[in-house]
Prior knowledge:
Layout: H1 3-10, E1 22-28, E2 34-41, H2 47-58, E3 69-73, H3 76-81, H4 83-93, H5 99-112, E4 118-133, E5 140-159, E6 163-167, E7 172-176, E8 180-182, E9 187-191, E10 193-195, E11 198-200, E12 203-208, H6 216-223, H7 232-247, H8 253-273, H9 283-292, H10 297-311, E13 327-330, E14 335-338, E15 346-351, E16 354-359, E17 365-367, E18 370-372
Antiparallel strand pairs: 1-2, 1-4, 3-12, 4-5, 5-8, 5-9, 6-7, 9-12, 10-11, 13-14, 15-16, 17-18
Amino acid sequence: MIEKEISEIRRRFRYDKTNITKVRGCYINESGEIISEFYESLGLMPQEQAEELLTILKKTLSGSIGKNLIDIEFSTHEVLESPHHKALMELRKSALSDDALVKELYEKIRSSLKMDTAYLILLASDRYDVPSFSKNDDEEEDSTEIFSYYLCTICPVKLTKNALGFHAHENKFCNIRPDYVIAPPSLGFMFPTFDDRTANIYKTLFYTRDTKDDHTELFINLFGKEETPMPAAVQKETFESLLTETMDAECNMNVVKSVQNELRSLIDEHKEAKKAETLVIDKEVVKGALTACGVSEEHLNAFDARFDEEFGEKVEIHPSNLIDKNFEVKMTDVSIKVNPDRTDLVRTKVIDGVKYILIRADDSVEVNGVRIRIDQ
């Protein structure tokens, strides 16, 4: 799914827009035991409570594509033969009303997750009358399709701490007792996806707040996937190690700046152009940046082979997963953060056999909030 499609579905999770009438789920304690189940009508809840619940569900469709939101694809064989895909389809067909199927889903999640806290599994089914648009992309015409989907959201339940409060109307202090509160979602998925504004049963959209965990066991039990996507944080760590080890002696400031600037430039251009499709790159983009700053053929070949080994051949990666928002230079006792658009201000140099990091000080300089002068 692209950002525009995700945003369209996110807008469904408003009290005055949604067709979600009920939310069902279960509470699982710290020991991984299902303690209670519920099937609540939004219409019978106070509006404020229903709105809070919809907001929690909507957060399962938040974050960055490729980092927090990941498309999980099913092959034609899986769609036809996989019991995992069949279970997803049956849940959709029943609009989550089949108790046996729902309990089976609870069990798959319960047996796969090892969380430090208790948590809630929330399930919601929606039917969206998808409007079509006129050629000028301005006027909405009558709906031509109904998109049926459901959302599964997994939220930690955390115990608040004791706190001191003040009752203004009584003019006195009071103790606020600890209570259990629903935290933002840590995991979830939507099935099917809303690709090209229509249902795509060959994909599910998976959400994770933690970009380091690959959730292997959950992927196996829920989707029948033995191979899981490399988490975004692991992609970044792998890419950094790959550059360090394959560039070897040529891994200098200019090489790293060249790669960072190239990827940053692509991200900025894509954002400014307001392109609908998600930006992805392959290894040739990085090799182009390495070639431009004079990396030798030997190290280019080493990078080429190692990239395929770590990420796979012909793989496409979200460039935002490979770089930080800031440009940072770190030593054991020093850390320098640089505006990514001004990496030209920083360079390295060896003076009288001593290595230095040089920062051009064209602007005013402050040390702990005090503006200083730099003498000749």
